[in-house]
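sry for the spam today, last one i promise. struct tokens for design, 275 residues
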């Protein structure tokens, strides 16, 4: 059960991009999914508390005490995967955990080699962001989380939903920026939206380009919305500076829905007769 240093992870990702292979960060909420994703070549395994809702057959939802759930999930995954870095989703605006350094300690002790700001307030709309910001439990807490991770030399990723959010975390030295264009659509319980993939790609490009113009050079990965299949990511790579994909529903929900439904249908299609 390895712990990976920030530099080790950055070196591994650089090797992939140098070889023109996209980076794959796979959302994994149980040992079996993590094991299969690692065997399939995933470069990072991201563990979210919200993955529990997907495994329950529900739309992606925040359930219970996010940080505690994510910390507890690490043991099951580390039991079957040792050669792929684990990245834990931290809810920075948890009012029961005001000490972010202590929270980072707990995630590292559980076996996470990196962190990502999830659940994130970035995607929750201005009304919610303003309300939480008034009590110092808003977006600034997530930026502070990234700043502390950088200062402690912990590998960090950040979901962002606006240009300013992207610049905020870039200024704090985040390693990977992940433009988030909405909950993933498709499958049995996807969050269908009215946006088209071309609009989402344009939005991703705006965030990425703004960070580059500001003089920052993090790694850019795409996520969400109509970007749900390998072919969808090809379109993103052709039209933006993204070099990889963060898949959650695209890894641990939609493929499982399809595979289990298909094999059940196949078993039921075999007739039998008795003489």
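last one done:
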């Amino acid at each position: 059960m390895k712990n990976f240093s920030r530099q080790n992870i950055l070196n591994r990702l650089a090797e992939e991009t140098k070889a023109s292979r996209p980076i794959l960060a796979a959302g994994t909420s149980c040992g079996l999914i993590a094991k299969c994703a690692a065997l399939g070549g995933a470069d990072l395994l991201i563990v979210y508390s919200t993955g529990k809702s997907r495994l329950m057959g529900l739309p992606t939802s925040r359930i219970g005490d996010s940080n505690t759930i994510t910390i507890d999930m690490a043991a099951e995954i580390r039991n079957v995967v040792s050669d792929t870095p684990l990245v834990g989703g931290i809810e920075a605006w948890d009012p029961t955990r005001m000490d972010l350094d202590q929270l980072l300690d707990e995630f590292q002790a559980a076996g996470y080699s990196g962190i990502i700001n999830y659940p994130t307030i970035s995607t929750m709309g201005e009304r919610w962001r303003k309300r939480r910001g008034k009590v110092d439990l808003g977006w600034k807490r997530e930026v502070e989380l990234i700043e502390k991770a950088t200062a402690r030399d912990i590998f960090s990723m950040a979901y962002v939903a606006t240009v300013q959010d992207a610049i905020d975390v870039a200024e704090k030295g985040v390693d990977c920026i992940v433009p988030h264009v909405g909950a993933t659509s498709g499958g049995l319980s996807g969050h269908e939206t009215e946006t088209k993939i071309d609009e989402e790609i344009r939005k991703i490009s705006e965030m990425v380009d703004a960070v580059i113009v500001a003089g920052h050079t993090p790694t850019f990965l795409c996520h969400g919305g109509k970007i749900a299949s390998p072919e969808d990511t090809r379109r993103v790579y052709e039209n933006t500076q993204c070099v990889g994909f963060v898949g959650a529903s695209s890894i641990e929900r939609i493929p499982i829905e399809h595979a289990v439904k298909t094999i059940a249908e196949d078993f039921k299609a075999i007739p039998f007769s008795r003489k």
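Residues 6-268 form a domain with the TIM Barrel fold (CATH 3.20.20.70). ok im logging off now
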